[in-house]
Protein 1
Amino acid sequence: MSVESSSLLRLFRRYPRAHLAPYRRFMVADRHVGWIKPDFAQLLAEFPDIFYLTDREVHLHDRLAEVKDRSTAVADALAKLHERGAIPGWRGELYPVNRRFGEAPLLLMERAATPLFGLQTYGINVNGLVRAGEECKVWIARRAMTKHVDPGMLDLVVGGGQPYGISIAENLLKECAEEACIGPTLAERARPVSVTTMLIEAAEGLRVGVQFNFDLELPADFQPRNDDGEVSEFQLWSMKRLEENLRNADDFMFDAALAKLDLLVRFGIVGPDDPDYLDLIAELRRPTPYVRT
């Protein structure tokens, strides 16, 4: 199958398009911050001092008026549900619950639970690039088989979620060191280049993501090494190989595939002559589905 024969729109058909009609809105302090499936909503109803349900919504109880009180109460309920096996992949990492990046959190929640609440989460993606004459190559990582999400799939050289209490810049330095042994002097050369968004129904729940993408040009003699056990190998690919893979395979985890498609667009490898170009741009930056009450 040739590069030209497969539409890159196939990437967005890997997961069913999320139909939110069956979901209940998750409301905190009268703000719509998430989407919850009916079966998980019924589990939350077992904690009436923390959550209460209406016909179309799940509310955090009004008596929990402070961020600390909300976070503590929700953490207690989620810990009990985790013990029952209802929340797998526990991370021990807190994410802010809000409606836009940088907004003060309404509460803090265990990362593993965020897809079950359909919360908007944030992350960083780093494209590790190597100049090869007139061409540019890109480092590709393969996720370890021990990863809870997308084990063994292809990924960026560096990527990670954006937890509470750390800046984007600090997180980038941390993830570069842990995932590819990229030191701070080199990592600080990373430049923000774009944002991609996603909304998919995955095995772990509704994933609503905003990804901050960076490009980092690495020396030709630099070899990434993993330091946290989350990567099994690194490969250096040509842009042509990357495009062929995205057109014909499902080897990349979804948010990494979006970042790589965005890279091909920005480098002009996928351009306006592609018949799907405008649809691809729209899919890469779909708006997030919250009611701005």
Protein 2
Amino acid sequence: MTERPPISSHPSPEASLPATATQVAITAPVRAILWMLLASALFALMALCSRLSSGSAPWTEVAFARAFFGLVVAASVARIRGFPLRVQDQKRAWGRSLCGTLSMLCTFYVYGAPELPLGDAAALGATSPIFLAVLAPFVLGERSGKKALLATPLAFFGVILVVQPKLQIAGHLAAISTLGALFSAFAMMFLRRLGPNESPEAVATHFSAVATVITLALAIPTFQRPDLPGFLALAGTGISAGLGQLAMTRAYALDHAARVGTVGYAGVVLTQLLGVLVLDERPGWGQVVGTTLVIVSGVLLALTALRYSRRA
């Protein structure tokens, strides 16, 4: 029996269309890829804002801004759309929120390290989908398919070429970044277990509320009042991350975790592009080849999603 993708509790626009129109509607796996691409772009913007704000604020304050503004965004969107903020599956929501908070702390600690280039930090954090692809069959019982299994190492190799990490960094930074990627993989699997019956706004609000409390406790002892550019960078970090969280939550609710997670490699490429446009960085041949490999892996995932949707 062919497995069907889960059905969202929120009626979709195509539900009221005639059968002929529904057949050409965008299917759940494809929507998941589009949502994850949007999330990747927003998280790339978050990484840039985080690096810009690190010059005027300690990493704990940057992490708090990400959590607090993310909470405001998620709660505001839920209120506008009229969705409840209570998560039904509290156990898995807490697992997602705690793992996500630990991953966030590791990420912003590494982003705040002045000796580590932004591209290197992005490359180390990009190991999360690798953990996800390896663990998902055992934890979630999800088979990723041959194309997805090929896309995962192909995309990661492309990421390595794009950012060309020298890895000439302190060992503890590499360990912390890798640990953050592992926590992120577990958080994504909790997201997949939550499924589409939970609204993205409720899940994101739960995570942001937990993260806000924890990061506030860490930020108070080292608080520094930022100037106006620093405050804008802090706000940009949180707002872009909050919107990215909503998009990512919807993506993981719609399709297999390993396949969705691999699409997240696009965020590393986008981070590199923002470095070129904003930080005046100049990509070499490795960045060009790596970007091509990431795009190829995305095409493989899209083909897998289309094949899956035709069978559903």
Protein 3
Amino acid sequence: MKILLIVNASASSVTARGRVVIQKALSADHEVRVAATSRRGHATRLAQGAAASGTDVVVVLGGDGTLNEAANGLAGTSTALAPLPGGSTNVFARTLGLSDDPVEATATLLEALSKNTIRSVGLGSVNGRYFLFHTGIGFDAAVVEQVEKRSSLKRYAGHPLFMWSAVTTWLRHYDHRSPAFALHYPDGTIVDSPFAIVLNTNPYTYLGARPFDIAPDAGLQRPLAVVALRSLGLITLTRVAMAALRPGSGVGHSRQVHYLPDVTDVTVRGYRPFPYQVDGDHLGDAEELVFRYEPEILSLVTPDSRAVSR
């Protein structure tokens, strides 16, 4: 196969030695070209060029943000995407059943390529941008914004940094006392919220080795799942967090939580500008977000068929 290996050298767990080992492993049976990202959005253009030139697979060694960019370059083409974990959390790669170690994940990827386990999967889109696993709206995105302001610390203190940022954001950087936006469904249903997540897969994230399960119905072969909190009070947040840490339980069994699976269309309209993030990348503030589900839009190398069976 013709493979383009896209590397984000600044990602948290990417090392020069690991990159060499991975490149050699891929080159043993495949024609491999390597390209390093140099700026935001670069992976999208590299992936688009690979698809236009007839590349079979784009392998991405980087974090979830780099993987998202590549997916946006490949959606709607016949070139497949293959993730290798290189970031601090690697939500999508781990959701597919890959090891969090990039060299171990490469061995699994090579086995999948030898079996040609490439499947078409669905993606969500928000204002025309595709997302692999979720879009966070409101409080969640404000936390990501604070983390990105201290991006140099992510390599050394990834999960503690997120937890510290969540506390300081709730205390000082986000108005958690009133709804920031409303979810508008095609049937006329309106739900006010200060914090919502639209998911293409589950879990929402990982806390170390533990998955943070909030939408067990979400999966790459099903439409989107929406989770929205009606309150950001400490009691509500604590209950939601405890429920999410129980594998497979989800968080939809509370009056303070709005949960709806199999959503193909939803529009978020703000009462004021609100922040949002896509696959872990903060994209600024918006006043309206239009979500769509796009079935079978991306070819994906899937090492574990169970990861996309739902």
Protein 4
Amino acid sequence: MSKVKAAIIGSGNIGTDLMYKLEKSNVIELTAMVGIDPESDGLSRAKEKGYHIFTNGIDGIQENPGIADLFFDATSAKAHITHAKVLKELGKMVIDLTPAAVGPFFSPAVGKTETDKGHDNVNMITCGGQATIPMVYAVNQVADVTYAEIVATISSLSAGPGTRANIDEFTITTRRGIEDVGGADQGKAVIILNPADPPIMMRDTIYCEVKDMDEEKVYQAIKEMEKTVQAYVPGYQLKQEPLFDNNMVTIFVEVEGAGDYFPAYAGNLDIMTAAAMKVGEDFARSIKIVS
């Protein structure tokens, strides 16, 4: 069967890493990369690989709407607001890797990849959300999470201009994801940029306060979720055994990147592109079925 044509909007770190991942897909055919900086490394690499490149941003898509049916937006929350409107008018499906939260939140580890023809824009929450919300969800399935707080610590070197410009959106969108997808009654998100040299791996701490603590059930749910995420992010792992204290469980996660474009320590970026590819492939299959 023919593959679904896709394009990436955003030629920065996220978009470039996603390019390398999509090249391995059995259902998606990458056709183009769209950017605004003609000198960007991402556009240069895309051109070398033979993809169409556009340096005039969303205007390039409006002028060439047939270039793809599925789009991945790896720009910024502010930019995506505009992109979403244009792509909706063009009748295109969008996987949003920014914290704009225009569409519903999706996390492949918690069954949020249902192929609903009604969706034309889905949001990948945040890197911290993709790393921690699955664990909140797992605990909530067996112990009813009343409060969940996550602390995402990433290397300062893995936080590019887009990440730094979206800090407020990160905390707000991740909190919403903890509640809407993770199932916690109340959530909170914190991000820390660590300037250590050599750079540290992405590490996430998840605190869950629960109503019905059953340590064995919670432990098993956590271990099973670790395996679920590892199916598409092999470098995802528990850093140590969960800690239990009365009605509180604390989970420690580390994410090592696959090294497609980013250094291995940039697991925060890698988990976003890996999750986006997984969701994009699910929607690509539905597009093929419908078409």
